[in-house]
Amino acid sequence: MLDSGKVTFCDLTDVSGAADMPKHVLKPVYPCMFENRIVGFNRRYAAMGVNQDISAMIRIWRPPLREDHTPMVAIGMYAVLEESELDGQYRVDVVQPLVNFDGIAITEITLSKLETNYDILEDSGGDTPSDLPYYPGPYEVIPKTIDQKLATKDHAMRDDVTVYEIPYAETTNDHGTTVVIAS
User: Fold this and answer.
1) C-alpha to C-alpha distances, 161 to 39, 62, 124, 125, 139, nearest whole angstrom
2) Chain-wide mean pLDDT for the chain?
3) Span 5-120: which CATH code?
C-alpha cells in the first residue's frame, strides 16, 4: 500500500515585495507517499452534476496536525504528485478521514488537476523560513568611509550581495617601507 508515488501538500503563498505585483508560489508543507485510487462512475457522475472535475483520488496515512493544531492537509491546499503516472499539480477538493479494513487511520483525497502550474519554493535547508518577503535591494554595495547597513533582516534574498573592492595602491619608499593608499 502507498507505493504509487510521492505527494507534497503545499500552501499557496505570496513572495512578492511590498511594492511588487503579487507572485504566488507553492510552499511545501507535508510530503508523504500515496496510493492511487480508482474514481468510480457514480462519484465522477455526481461531481459532474455540480460542475466539478475529479482528476484523481489518492490515499495517504492520516497526517498529523500542524503546530497550531490546524489540519496538515485541508481543502483548498495544493498537491504536487511525483514519481507516478499522475505527475503534476492539483488542487485539493475533498479530504476524507477514514479507517481502513485493518483499523488504520487513513485519509482519502480528491484532486483536480491545475490548468497552469505554480513555481515551488525550494527548501533552504537552514533555519530561514521560506515564506519571508524578498529583499528589494540593493544587491551591490560600494564601500564608503562610513558604516552602511542593508535592511535584509526578515527578508529572503533573490541573489548574492556583491561588495566591491576598495581601490588601493601600494608604493615603496627609499627606506623599504610599503605604504598602502586606499581611496
Assistant:
1) 51, 43, 17, 20, 5
2) 82
3) 2.40.10.270
